Hints:
The chain has helices at residues 2-24, 39-45, 51-79, 84-117, 122-135, 141-157, 172-179, 187-202; strands spanning 25-26, 29-30. It is mostly helical. Strands 1-2 form a two-stranded antiparallel sheet.
Amino acid sequence: MLKVLMIIACLGHVLCGITDCMMAYTKDGRFEFTDTKDPAGMRKLFQSMTTKRLEIAMLGGIFALFMSSLGYVSLSKWMTDYSDIAGKIMMVSGLFFLILIATHHVLCGTVEWFYVRLGRTDEALAVVMEFFRRTAISAVAYVGLLCFALTFGIVVLIGKTSLPPWACVFNTFPIFLVLAPTKVPAKGNLANAVMFLGMSILL
């Protein structure tokens, strides 16, 4: 059963990565935060974006993160057999990440939705960017992910679990460091997906 949950979590992150790309990529290029400083460039970039696509991306992302939550919770419970403290840290940090990242995902989609719905005007851009700045604190979710990944990786590395120490490479943190310099999209979700894929094989 644990393997099945790891596979579901892996697929959840793959799906979440797809929904991220649905919000970040348009027919006219990839959206970067620095693009918001160029209203004319923003209008051109988002001219083909539709509110329907953004709605699917937001709702799909929530469902995807629910799928992924099965992996975080199961891995945390598995860890308690070897270290009760580590397991609890992983559970709390994992839930912290999941709840806030789902919120952040929807808020990012909401910003784009209103920008498109309000006609992609300069005024619309100013309003949605003010909203984004006021809600960007939700991005603190990544602190939870970092805590989860480091706790899991360290306990495996020091040989406190049934996994071999080298299995610590199947961890979000080192995988993300490898992907960071590349142009691969949805790096965070891809790193998480690889971690759960590895666990589905090793556990």
